[in-house]
Design a protein that fits this description.
The complex is a heterodimer of chains A (115) and B (108).
Chain A lengths: L3 E4 L2 E4 L5 E7 L5 E7 L5 E9 L2 E4 L6 E3 L9 E3 L8 E8 L1 H4 L5 E2 L3 E5 L1
Parallel strand pairs in A: 2-11
Antiparallel strand pairs in A: 1-3, 3-8, 4-5, 4-9, 5-6, 7-8, 9-10, 9-11
Chain B lengths: L3 E4 L2 E5 L4 E7 L6 E6 L5 E6 L3 E5 L2 E6 L4 E6 L8 E10 L2 E4 L3 E6 L1
Parallel strand pairs in B: 2-11
Antiparallel strand pairs in B: 1-3, 3-8, 4-5, 4-9, 6-7, 7-8, 9-10, 9-11
The chains are: A mainly beta (115), B mainly beta (108).
Chain lengths: 115, 108
C-alpha cells in the first residue's frame, strides 16, 4: 500500500542530545514537509523540500536540520539548540504536478518528549 | 503573513446533529484544504477546495474566495467524527498555513 511512514511513534530524549526522526514515503511525491504541533495548537512548518537535494526553511527552522538525499526519505534532526523540542512532529508529502492540486498527505506522527 | 482563523474553537454535539465550521483567511489564496485529526493524531485530508462547493458523503465544504472564508458542513454527526478539524491555506509556494482548529466532540 502507498503511504507515509514515520518512526519511531514515541521518542524520549535527554536534554542536550540530538535525535533524528524518520519519514519515508512510497507515493512518488516530489515535495515533502515537516510540521510541529504543540498541544491545542495548529501545525507550524519547520522545513520543506520540493525536490531531491534541495530544501527550504519554514517558519520555525531554528534548532532543526534536514536532508533530502533520496526522493522517498526526508529525515528531521532535532538538535540540542532547539530550546523546547517536546512536541508532536508530523511529516507530509504532496505532488502538485501529478495531481494538479497541492493536497498534502500526512504520516502518523512522532511524539518527542525531552526528559 | 496570511492569517487563518477558525470558529468555533470547541463544539459539542449529540450524535445525529448537524454542524457548520468556519474558516476565515486574511488574503486571497489559490489553495485551501480541510483536514480532520483523529484522537490518535493522524491527519486526513477531507477537501482540497480553493473555491466552490464539494461534497463527500455526510461532509461538504464551500469556499467563497472573494469574501475570504470557507465553511465545512457535517450532517448527521457520528461519534467517529470527533477530533480536530483544521483549515489550511497557501502561505507561499506549496507552503500551508494552518488555523488553530475546531475541536469537535460527538457524544452518543
Amino acid at each position: 500500500d502507498g503511504g507515509i511512514t514515520q518512526s519511531p511513534k514515541y521518542l524520549f530524549r535527554k536534554e542536550g542530545q540530538n535525535v533524528t526522526l524518520s519519514c519515508e514515503q512510497n507515493l512518488n511525491h516530489d515535495a515533502m514537509y515537516w510540521y510541529r504541533q504543540d498541544p491545542g495548537q495548529g501545525l507550524r512548518l519547520i522545513y520543506y523540500s520540493q525536490i531531491v537535494n534541495d530544501f527550504q526553511k519554514g517558519d520555525i527552522a531554528e534548532g532543526y536540520s534536514v536532508s533530502r538525499e533520496k526522493k522517498e526519505s526526508f529525515p528531521l534532526t532535532v538538535t540540542s539548540a532547539q530550546k523546547n523540542p517536546t512536541a508532536f512532529y508530523l511529516c507530509a508529502s504532496s505532488s502538485p504536478h501529478e495531481t494538479r492540486t497541492d493536497t498534502q498527505y500526512f504520516g502518523p506522527g512522532t511524539r518527542l518528549t525531552v526528559l | 503573513g496570511i492569517q487563518v482563523e477558525q470558529s468555533p474553537p470547541d463544539l459539542i454535539l449529540q450524535e445525529g446533529a448537524n454542524s457548520t465550521l468556519r474558516c476565515n483567511f486574511s488574503d486571497s489564496v489559490n489553495n485551501l484544504q480541510w483536514f480532520h485529526q483523529n484522537p490518535w493524531g493522524q491527519l486526513i485530508n477531507l477537501f482540497y477546495i480553493p473555491s466552490g462547493t464539494k461534497q463527500n458523503g455526510r461532509l461538504s465544504a464551500t469556499t467563497v474566495a472573494t469574501e475570504r472564508y470557507s465553511l465545512l458542513y457535517i450532517s448527521s454527526s457520528q461519534t467517529t467524527d470527533s477530533g480536530v478539524y483544521f483549515c489550511a491555506v497557501e502561505g507561499g509556494f506549496q507552503k500551508l498555513v494552518f488555523g488553530t482548529g475546531t475541536r469537535l466532540l460527538v457524544s452518543p
